[in-house]
């Protein structure tokens, strides 16, 4: 076994293809993990390029914690990853995959876990993005007694910003992946494969699009344009989505920085400073998206 991430291992097998084992925290109920598996089966039936369940019954329990096994996607060598992604269509194709995902049936009458509330980052919560923001607020409240006086003003400002985040509630909904970014793309000889579907479900489609746009624009603003070009092959954004894009795009980056503050990785002052820089970037993203959509 080789650890890939916290709670995630590659399992090398002598009697068949390798697996990926995801061992979830005890706080995550077995029903939620079973829902993850059901969504993977739903995507497989529609030939969407996601990781596949490794067995008919891929969910089990180990020491009171749920375990999900999926097939190893067999990536190209690391030094070939960039070229393989480009050959598969690059960021435009990634955006198109997200758009295609958002066209799949996730109405309240859809079968099983596909219609469950989703979109929250599973390290914090299950459910809608509002559950993620609420969990981040609780995490900050628990950390409050540990904050030194010199950082108190910045910490209070961070808490206020998190509490005021736009969770995209009321916007058009679809089947969404909580973290649809390049970090969760496996570049295989056959194309891109999306992994880590924990917490997927029905939620505001702008939530996942906004974070993908931010993640790429943070590297180079023009990269967000390529994502949008592909996404628009499948989805036409509504006026209210355009109006709220800037605010929604700020949410996940701020939550990640709040998480880092609570882990002691950065100071509240550093988080607030970074949030100010994020605001400028998300304003640029929203301006460019609106110009592209209304051109």
Textual characterization of the structure:
- The structure is a single chain.
- The protein has 295 residues and is of the alpha+beta class.
- It has two domains: 1-72, Phosphorylase Kinase, domain 1; 74-294, Alpha-Beta Complex (Aminoglycoside 3'-phosphotransferase, Chain: A, domain 2), CATH 3.90.1200.
- Helices cover 46% and strands 14% of the residues.
- The strands form three sheets. It has a five-stranded antiparallel β-sheet, covered by helices on one side.
- The longest helix is centred in the C-terminal third of the chain and has 27 residues, at 268-294.
- The protein is globular, with a radius of gyration of 19 Å.
- The relative contact order is 0.14.
- The model has no long low-confidence stretch (mean pLDDT 95).
What structural keywords apply?
295 residues, alpha+beta, Aminoglycoside 3'-phosphotransferase, Chain: A, domain 2, 2 domains, two-stranded antiparallel ribbon, globular
CATH architecture annotation name of the largest domain: Alpha-Beta Complex
The percent range for helix content is: 40-55%
* Total number of beta strands: 9
Rounded average pLDDT: 95
**Which topology of the largest domain does CATH recognise?**
Aminoglycoside 3'-phosphotransferase, Chain: A, domain 2
Instruction: Kindly report how far apart the N and C termini lie.
Output: 52 Å
Give the SSE string.
EEEHEEHHHHEEEEHHHHH
Assembly state (oligomeric): single chain
User: Which sheet architecture does the biggest sheet show?
Assistant: 5 strands, antiparallel
If helices are DSSP runs of H or I spanning 4 or more residues, what is the number of helices?
10
Overall shape:
globular
CATH class of the largest domain: Alpha Beta
Q: Could you say how many structural domains there are in total?
A: 2
